[in-house]
Design brief:
- The protein is built from 1 helix and 3 strands, in the order ββαβ.
- By secondary structure, the protein is an alpha+beta fold.
- A hairpin with a 7-residue loop joins strand 1 and strand 2.
- The longest helix has 13 residues.
Length: about 70
């Protein structure tokens, strides 16, 4: 939701585990912000749905997303 007169800017940090088949069985937002739960859930679900390369061992990964309004 847009907030009039305020420039939107936030960072969403996600920690996830990439399984050997490239799927993401575990993921969570590590820096939740009050009022941004819907946006955080959207980014989290997107990250979990992306295909990742298969590997030999599960890999813990942290992704940082920096979001800001451009208008």
């Amino acid at each position: 939701e847009r907030q009039s007169g305020k420039k939107f800017e936030t960072e969403i940090r996600i920690t996830m585990l990439i399984a050997v088949d490239g799927s993401v069985p575990e993921a969570r937002v590590t820096n939740p912000v009050a009022g941004l739960g819907e946006l955080e859930t959207c980014v989290l679900e997107a990250v979990k749905s992306w295909p990742y390369p298969a590997g030999q061992i599960p890999a813990p990964v942290q992704c940082n997303f920096y979001l800001r309004a451009i208008m």
